[in-house]
Amino acid sequence: MISVQEALSIILSQSRNFGNTAVSINEANGRVLAEDIHADRDYPPFHRAAMDGFALRSIDFLEKSIRTYEIIEDLFAGGTSTLQPKEGQCLRIMTGSATPEVYDAIIRIEDCQVEGQQVTFNISALKKGQNIARQGEDAQAGALILTKGTRLFAPEVSALAVAGRSTVLVHQFPKIAVISTGDEVVPVGQDIQPHQIRDSNSYALASFLHQYGLEIAYRKLIRDDKELLRHAIQEVLTYDLVIFSGGVSMGEADFIPGVLADCGVQPLFHKVKLKPGKPLWFGKLPAGGVVFGLPGNPMSCQVCYKVFIEPFIRKCFGLSAALTLQLPLLIDKKKNAKLDQYFPCIIEGKGIRPVVINGSGDITSTLRSHGLAVHPLDALDLTAGDPVEFIFW
Ligand code: AMP
Ligand code: MG
User: Fold this and answer.
1) Closest ligand 1 atom, CA of 200?
2) What is the pLDDT of residues 75-113, one digit of tens each?
């Protein structure tokens, strides 16, 4: 049996670029950028007034010690000024205006006393350049402001708008199939018998995928029947990502590995030193896509997604690995299996507390958690205070 690290490197080696597509800036949220974005001009594009107040020549204030000035003009954001100030003259200026070069300081309105066309400044110190955002101080024309492989959220979409990009190149979405299997599994919304289980895994997967804007193009629930399974696989042979849930363990009705091999899907590994999630199956479709066979237990399914499928998707999109934190465990934890153990935890104060679990079939344990922590395969018992790796759901 291979380790989680070995399994992950096999999975990541199968990552593929799904191609690029141009979308409108209005559709860009959550997408992954497929081009570098440069500032098309300086930002700020002019010496921007950062306060409402009065613009003056600092030399008048600092060297000539003038405190009362004549207001020669009003300048609003979006406007331009026409007059040249002489000694002791100033400009009434509003935030966001393009400050003429000749003025090199702004005194905010709160520090002034205005009488008609005269203003007196009630301050003793003045710094050249104060309250003026210099042209290009934030970003210079041509500067790289967004790099490919960045996910676009509010700050990034804002930067696209600043750079004048009404359309942008992003990574295309993969074609995804999710196939739940099991004679005991029934769809949500259908009458259910005491010995049956509702299909929750396809919903968990749909929700996880949705975090990346991904939709499931082919979604089915199939009995443990080789013929029906074969038929389903035939229908998704050209997909980029196929996810099975259930049917990969050692039971008499766990047909997935055999049926996948019959259909020409190349097995790359079966079983990983992971708890929960040991029966994971992974292979490659003849057309280049990949197939994950996840164990059916809800917790195993969710852990396998976080540990293997999400990193695969991120790699395909050129994204770096998801954020992990090192957080201290709040209680002792025994090591009881030579496997990487992933356990749901809640963040509490400055540390994390494992939630109580009965087993990987639990449906409530992940609900009560913020994410998963890892007790690595070769680690010993953990004591309260020990840092552990934590990933958010
Ligand atoms: P399997 O991996 O097929 O042996 O299934 C392991 C356990 O997961 C069984 O108790 C199944 O009833 C349960 N299970 C399988 N598929 C699903 C599903 N789609 N949603 C919720 N539970 C499932
Ligand atoms: Mg089953």
Assistant:
1) 20
2) 999 999 999 999 999 999 999 999 999 999 999 999 999
Read off the tokens for 337. 């299996």
For the CA of 197, the closest atom of ligand 1 is 12
Residues 11 and 305: their CA atoms lie apart, in Å, by 12
Joined together, the tokens standing for residue 360 give 């990987």
Alpha helices for the chain (secondary structure H): 4-13, 58-62, 154-162, 201-210, 226-235, 256-262, 298-304, 310-316
Question: Which protein residue has the closest C-alpha to ligand 1 atom 17?
Answer: 296
Q: Is the pLDDT of residue 359 over 90?
A: no
Q: Return the closest-CA partner of residue 342 out of 13, 351, 350, 352.
A: 352
Question: Which ligand sits closest to the CA of 184?
Answer: 1
Average pLDDT score over residue span 2-23: 98
Residue minimizing CA distance to atom 16 of ligand 1:
296
The number of residues making up the chain comes to 393
Closest residue CA from atom 5 of ligand 1 = 296
Backbone angles phi, psi at 162, to 5 degrees: -55, -40
In the predicted model, is pLDDT for residue 227 greater than 90?
A: yes
Is pTM beyond 0.85? Reply is yes
CA 246 / ligand 1 centre spacing (Å) = 5
| Ligand 2 midpoint to CA 116 (Å) | 85
Q: Quick one: which atom of ligand 1 is closest to the CA of 295?
A: 2
What is the mean pLDDT of the segment spanning 204-213? 98
Which residues does ligand 1 sit against, CB inside 6 Å?
A: 180, 182, 184-185, 197, 199-202, 245-247, 249, 251, 295-298, 361
Q: What is the DSSP string of 292-315?
A: EEE-SSHHHHHHHIIIIIHHHHHH
Question: What is the predicted pLDDT for the residue at 23?
Answer: 98
Please state, in angstroms and rounded to a whole number, the distance separating the CA atoms of residues 85 and 90: 6
Residue 360 has pLDDT above 90, yes or no: no
